[in-house]
Specification:
By secondary structure, the chain is an alpha/beta fold. Helix content is 34%, strand content 16%. The strands form two sheets. It has a six-stranded parallel beta sheet, sandwiched between helices. Bound molecules: ligand BJW and zinc ion.
Length: 256
């Protein structure tokens, strides 16, 4: 609907007592982390993320799937938070309550200074056992490139000997119960939600802004493209998050 940062949007943001920010892969795009449904780079060009991000894919070809996740963990470890992550972290000091909900499995929000965020889809940095689900400690430092460029054997669980898998939520798997409950409760209480850099296709994450819209509280979208949420958002800000999130901050609270 509204394309620009209008005085009405600024007033709503300044007056918000509980703000929810929902982020997706697009918030990390300007840090050089590929989005999920955008083109993959280099070695992975021929692969579809949706084909690699499943328990079936891991059962079929654990080395391929583990290699892909280790490659992504390496990329993320070398990446830096961008102005969108930083603006979001600063917003927490300006509103009485901010709940940051991310679908991302990277740690760029944490490294930008956000704490208490809700990782709906888990993390690249906390792998678990495929069988007993106990956590597995990764060696410190930046992971190495997989040997032949792609495949890498996953480590084995020290407790039961099964393969270690990425600590993320694949299609068909449940989101962590407590994390989902907290995100849903925040969406049912907040007086505004900003959806940043998500295609709004994957459920149940994509239902959070809809819950806010149902209560007639303002929903803001920040995305260079139209998405599944565009028809619902009260304010559809078209552009990159690295530009628009600092602009939103500045419009509401002045230069940082
Ligand atoms: C920029 C930008 C810039 C670019 N600035 N923006 C209800 C209806 C229909 C289906 C379902 C439903 N409920 C459940 C389902 C099934 C399924 C689902 O949603 N399927 C749909 C795809 C149809 N959901 C599930 O299976 C979920 N589980 C579940 O519901 O459990 C209950 C259950 C149990 C048993 C059986 C059935 C149900 C789990 C979903 C888990 C999603 N996992 C992934 C992989 C995580 C690990 C990994 O990263 O590898 O999560 S999939 C992938 O998509 C990843 C992402 O977090 C998620 C969302 O993607 P996101 O962030 O939106 O990225 P993109 O790439 O799609 O979009 C990027 C956006 O950025 C674009 O819009 C760009 O324009 C924009 N952008 N540059 C701002 N500079
Ligand atoms: Zn185990």
């Amino acid at each position: 609907m509204e394309q620009t940062i209008s005085p009405e949007l600024v007033a709503a943001l300044r007056g918000a007592r509980h703000l929810v920010i929902l982020t997706g892969a697009g918030v990390s795009a300007e840090s050089g982390v590929p989005t999920f449904r955008g083109p993959m780079s280099g070695l992975w060009e021929r692969f579809e993320p949706a084909q690699l991000a499943s328990a079936d894919a891991f059962r079929r070809d654990p080395e391929l799937v583990w290699g892909w996740y280790e490659w992504r963990r390496m990329l993320v470890s070398k990446a830096q938070p961008n102005p969108a992550h930083l603006a979001i972290a600063r917003m927490a000091a300006k509103v009485p309550r901010l709940t940051l909900v991310t679908q991302n499995v990277d740690d760029l929000h944490e490294r930008a200074g956000s704490d208490n965020l809700l990782h709906l889809h888990g993390s690249l940095h906390h792998p678990i056992c495929f069988a007993c689900r106990r956590p597995h400690a990764l060696p410190p430092g930046i992971p190495e490139e997989p040997d032949d460029g792609r495949r890498l054997a996953p480590p084995l669980c020290g407790h039961c000997g099964a393969r270690i898998r990425p600590g993320v939520v694949w299609f068909g798997e449940s989101l962590p119960k407590d994390v989902w409950a907290a995100a849903a409760a925040a969406s049912d209480e907040c007086d505004m939600l900003i959806s940043v850099g998500t295609s709004a296709l994957v459920h149940p994450a994509a239902s959070l802004p809809l819950r806010v819209a149902e209560r007639r509280r303002p929903v803001v979208q920040v995305n260079p493209e139209r998405t599944a949420l565009s028809a619902v958002a009260d304010y559809d800000l078209t552009g990159p998050a690295g530009l628009l999130m600092p602009a939103l901050y500045e419009a509401a609270w002045g230069a940082a």
